[in-house]
Amino acid sequence: MWTVYKKEIRSFLSSLIAYMVMLVFLGATGLFMWVIKGNSVFDLGLASMQVMFEMAPYIFIFLISAITMRSFSEEKRLGTLETLTTRPVSDLGIILGKYLAGVTLLLISLLPTLVYYYSLSKLGQTEGNIDTGAMWGSYFGLVMLGMAYTAMGVFSSAVTDNQIVALICSMALGFFFYVVLGMMGDISALDAIGKSLEWFSLEYHYDSMSRGVLDTRDILYMLSFSALFIGLTKTVFESRKW
Amino acid sequence: MFKCTGNHYFCKTNVSIQVNNLTKIYGTQTAVNNVSFEIKPGEIVGFLGPNGAGKSTTMKMLTCYIPPTSGEAKVCNLDVSDQSIQVRKHVGYLPEHNPLYLDMYVKEYLAFAAGMGGVKKVNERVDEVIALTHLGIEKHKKIGQLSKGYRQRVGLAQAIIHNPDVLILDEPTSGLDPNQVMEIRDLIRNLGSNKTIMLSTHIMQEVEAICSRVIIIDKGIIVADDKLENLRNRSEGKWLVRVQFATDVDEKALKSIQGLLQTNLLGNNTWRLTGDNENFRQAVSQFALSSNLEVTELVSEKDSLESIFRQLTGHVDSL
Q1: Which of A7, A93, A96 sits opposite B112 (nearest CB)?
Q2: Partner-chain contact B117 A88, CB within 8 Å
Q3: Do B207 and B59 reside in the same domain of the chain?
Q4: ipTM
Q5: Does residue B235 surpass a pLDDT of 70?
Q6: Can you give the residue range of the structural domain that contains B40?
Q7: Element (H, E) at B35
Q8: Of A130, B59, B69, B154, whose CB is crowded by the most CB atoms within 10 A?
């Protein structure tokens, strides 16, 4: 597993995609937080990173899809899946290696945003007046959400040998589970059904974590969401044997 | 996930590859049909057959890439279905078309392959294998920059990196120029000194050049499995002549040729005739003269193995 992990990290770092993703993520969140009028910290007058945590899930849908689109589709296209899966390593080991590499890249791209936290706490009316608990909760939620996205991305990549198809498939899945299901509760015609459907959305649980309350139900939901898609990837992987 | 158990894996059994009634069905198509054979340690076996005969499918089952529909396959007495991970430790595999990561460096890729194979002293082993496959001058290049011959060496290097007992090579020389073919063959022969090798090909000369034994497969069925010299002997006492007449000839008329054993219509008035004596070619030309037939081509077929292959695989179109 760690051999695959190391190889993936190396190939991320030697390809442009990783740097592009980090740049775009930091650029976008930075712009929304500090520059674009109407939503920026200065306009709101609050020492809060809420803007970033509201934008990040949408940006992640695109960026994480871009990170994971290569993982298996490229192996399939090159035919290297055959050499990869005939080595004495289990299928799950290979999948987890790739998955964890994606998660690592996600963590690396989140790391520089800690600077925002530092700046905000300096800018606070009395220095350090910032809701640290909510922020860590939000970070934790964002990482969990990113992990779920990564699992979906890896799954999409395993389905096809075309990177573009993998990208679109993974974005569609992210959009469905975050945005579409998340909207269900707001549709009055659906009433109670809508509310229950909303419970299944990533947004519901992410929001709940963003408030700074770490509920085991939310954590469990996020983890099982990732596990589900890793399991599905394994099933797709084994489908060659049917 | 996976713990390596050591650098060298030894086959303690006296059979390296054992295949019993192996069958693979894709949907409605039977790719491999009830195939059985055995390969002993140290043998170099050529797995010969026309394209689509089921060579690659058999090899994929032996390397645990796809499971058999029925029957069993064992490598070093380990079952490919039940002890898949163990089997993979003993097998080095070079798939058809030699897939490689083109944007990786040679050393980087081999180190990755070594790690995946559970090799402990990765760097030492990589250097060893680079020396074995004569990749020294190219080791700092990206795989994408290498010529096809060198890529094939990298393919072989990744197959032997974990020092397996059994090497399964799927068309190792296809698409190479004649010089590269010779080099790769030499390499395989050298590697073969302490390994069991099964290599697939559709080129008869390849088998003659490297292998001690040949298994010929056609349409998923084994049609011959023998030592090379035995196979050659099969054609002893038989002389093959390929003849093309200018006009249609009745098969019954051909029966009057002295010493004729067998006729084979190859199409376009071309026949392959099998005779039982060395003067058979003259007999054929005599027959043509006496029956006033114009002959446009008359060749005796020297390459006996080639013709055995054609007879066994029954491909009348391959002239």
Answers
A1: A7
A2: yes
A3: yes
A4: 0.84
A5: no
A6: 17-231
A7: strand B29-39
A8: B154
